[in-house]
Specification:
heterodimer, A: mainly alpha, two-stranded antiparallel sheet, 11 helices, 4 strands, 72% helix, 4% strand, B: 387 residues, alpha/beta, Rossmann fold, 2 domains, 7-stranded mixed β-sheet, 5-stranded parallel β-sheet, 13 helices, globular
Chain lengths: 294, 387
């Protein structure tokens, strides 16, 4: 029983990181219909900003702030430079643009900084664990769960209360009509990118605290996981992305914890099979809306 | 029309003559090719290897070249892509290289190696450590790096020497290195009287090891030692979560964690022992290499792959010298019989080893964020698991 609760906490913490990343992807998808494959590279940028900040002797708290700010600004810049010129092109063009942005960033990191990983020393207090009713919860896990909860609350307030937030939700439903209501399209799109960068920055800090180093290709795998979470939750649904992130993490952690030894090599295939089964049952995703066929 | 054809034929013929001349290694010099993954996922290994190769080349040419001929290196990027590795290798063959260095990973190394094999040009992978690689390609393919079974045996010998009875091994089937090395360790550990109590599996890039750590905590009997060949980002994540869960079982790693990250992990990495290709003790060849490296590139060396790249270039030079010719089959035979070639990490022997070299394995311990030399080991051949 104790192990079960422990694994539950483990899944909650991993799910938090997946949810933050998936939410960032979903936010951009909901307004532009673009899956931004350069999203993971925003995490990498956070890492390099932190690496250089720590190298300049700025200390961890400032490095974290700079890292997240860097990802946010980079996301906005990415939209302005790469995606705005092709905004009216078809989705395949935008998808390829995002892959190109990602590849260019990889090559720049590899050739201008280093192909080798760069260490990010994590303060020792972040490495310990706290004892909560007999459960050992890692400080990083605790931070991950807390940060996810706070960000989700703040975001839902923003999306429900502010004009820009309401405009973003409206744009997710029907962008052309939202523009007819007098909403500035550029502002909505730039905000969506900025928020996705902020989410990627926070997820990046949590990811980096676990791995202790930044390397040019580190964003690739997380963005794949986030993509699976987004599809699982329902493309275009913000709540769906969060739910998808948590469901994916629960499947992964519980399979790794409780599969018999002989089955372990197949855990990834079993995870993806379960995802496919869920999608067969609910093709629109867990929380996705059924498209009206006209 | 006729005029154009004649000109074109003449141009092609001239090109062929130049290429033929280079292949025979005339006074123009000797050409070596490097088909490596300088961008993409192999860049962290092939870029440093290339730096080491170029340093060796500078020293060889400064000392008068090979057999009095200057050595030229043609470098081509495979983009870490297996199909491209094959195309690039064919281009190098057409360029008339007399020996070829190929990527650090097994799949592209095989793709390039097969091209060299067909052209009867000897080739070697910069740092692939799978001991079955040369046999998979044929008699013209060599290994350079410390083989996985050798490292596994050294780590097992050390573990038994410390009195560890029960081992837990953590492996990933994503690459031969992360899968086979722990398995070789387990095989050698059991052959030496120990017991492997459980085998855990992870996926490379997996951020979260909490499930595995919780399982280790619940093992009965609890392991005396944990062995893994996980490297970053997996290794730091694993050991942080292991120590955070209050498990202080000793951990043995392999050369993948020989990186500045490991030494900046702080308390969690304290006491970790890992194997690698050599330790730069004062007065050693490796120390001299590190100094020469810093002089050439202006930054301190931070990985052993530079040194093993340097070693490989020195081995190729020794093979050509020993063959006394730039003829592929002659170089191959000489290479296969090399003994005690003095290189940056110590010495290398190929004779009677089926093209997988015997080289020293050093054990290092992380202590106070510094590297401490545990010792250099060459295990009893009967204790090295068969590949």
């Amino acid at each position: 029983m104790e192990i079960l609760i422990q694994q539950f906490v483990n899944a909650l913490s991993l799910g938090g990181t997946y949810a933050l990343l998936a939410l960032g992807l979903a936010m951009v998808f909901s307004v532009l219909g673009l899956i931004n494959f350069a999203h993971g590279d925003l995490m990498t940028l956070t890492g390099y900003a932190m690496f250089f900040a720590i190298g300049a002797g700025l200390g961890m708290p400032l490095a974290v702030v700079l890292g997240i700010a860097c990802a946010t600004l980079a996301a906005v810049a990415m939209e302005r430079v790469a995606f705005r010129p092709v905004r009216d092109a078809n989705t395949a063009t935008m998808l390829l643009t995002s892959l190109a942005v990602s590849t260019i960033l990889h090559m720049l990191f590899q050739n201008l900084i280093s192909a080798r990983p760069r260490a990010i020393p994590v303060p020792s207090w972040m490495i310990g664990a706290v004892d909560v009713g007999g459960l050992a919860i890692g400080v990083i896990q605790l931070m991950s769960i807390t940060a996810t909860a706070l960000l989700l609350i703040a975001l839902s307030i923003f999306l429900r209360r502010s004009t820009l937030g309401i405009a973003m939700r409206a744009a997710a439903l029907d962008f052309p009509v939202t523009r007819l209501m007098g909403i500035n399209a550029n502002a909505v799109v730039a905000t969506a990118f900025g928020l996705s960068g902020l989410l990627a920055g926070v997820a990046g800090v949590l990811w980096l605290a676990q791995r202790g180093s930044v390397d040019p290709l580190m964003g690739f795998l997380p963005v794949l996981k986030a993509f699976i979470a987004v599809v699982l939750g329902g493309l275009g649904s913000l709540a769906g992305a969060v739910v998808g992130g948590f469901v994916l993490a629960f499947i992964e952690v519980f399979l790794r914890a409780f599969l018999p030894d002989g089955w372990l090599p197949f855990r990834e295939s079993i995870t993806l099979t379960l995802v496919i089964v869920l999608l067969l049952v609910r093709p629109e995703g867990l929380i996705g809306q059924r498209e009206n066929v006209r | 029309m006729n005029q154009v054809s004649t000109t074109r034929i003449a141009a092609v013929a001239a090109g062929l003559m130049v290429a033929g001349g280079t292949a025979q290694g005339d006074s123009h010099g000797i050409t070596i090719g490097y088909a490596g993954g300088f961008t993409g996922y192999l860049a962290p290994y092939d870029q440093p290897s290339l730096n080491g190769v170029q340093l060796a080349l500078d020293q060889i040419n400064a000392a008068g070249g090979i057999m009095g001929m200057t050595v030229e290196l043609i470098v081509k990027d495979t983009r870490s892509d297996t199909a491209q590795a094959s195309v690039v290798a064919q281009e190098l063959v057409d360029d008339g290289v007399v020996a070829m260095i190929v990527s650090c990973d097994v799949d592209p190394a095989v793709a390039s190696g097969v091209m060299a094999q067909v052209a009867e040009i000897p080739s070697a992978s910069s740092c692939a450590s799978t001991p079955t690689l040369p046999a998979a390609v044929g008699p013209y393919m060599f290994s350079n790096y410390t083989a996985d079974n050798l490292q596994g045996a050294v780590l097992a010998e050390y573990a038994r020497g410390q009195g560890y009875e029960n081992a837990y091994i953590l492996l990933s089937r994503d690459t031969p290195y992360t899968e086979k090395l722990p398995e070789y360790f387990g095989e050698a550990f059991e052959a030496m009287g120990g017991t492997v109590v459980a085998v855990g599996e992870y996926t490379m890039g997996q951020q979260d090891f909490s499930a595995e750590v919780t399982n280790i905590g619940g093992l009965d009997p609890s392991p005396d030692v944990i062995q893994t060949s996980a490297y970053e980002p997996d290794f730091p994540a694993f050991i942080k979560q292991l120590r955070a869960a209050g498990i202080d079982t000793p951990v043995l790693g392999s050369d993948g964690i020989d990186s500045p990250t490991t030494f900046s992990l702080g308390d969690v990495a304290e006491g970790v022992v890992f194997s690698n290709a050599g330790f730069a003790s004062p007065g050693s060849a490796l120390e001299a290499f590190e100094m020469a490296f810093e002089e050439k590139y202006g930054t301190p060396n931070d990985t052993v792959f530079t040194a093993t790249g340097y070693d490989l270039m020195m081995v190729i030079a020794a093979a050509i010298e020993a063959a006394g010719s730039t003829d592929g089959p002659a170089i191959r035979d000489a290479w296969d019989n090399l003994e005690n070639v003095q290189v940056a990490t110590g010495s290398i022997t190929y004779k009677d080893q089926n093209r997988v070299p015997v080289r020293v394995v050093a054990l290092n311990q992380v202590s106070g964020g510094e590297r401490v030399h545990v010792g250099d080991f060459s295990p009893d051949p009967s204790m090295i698991p068969a590949p």
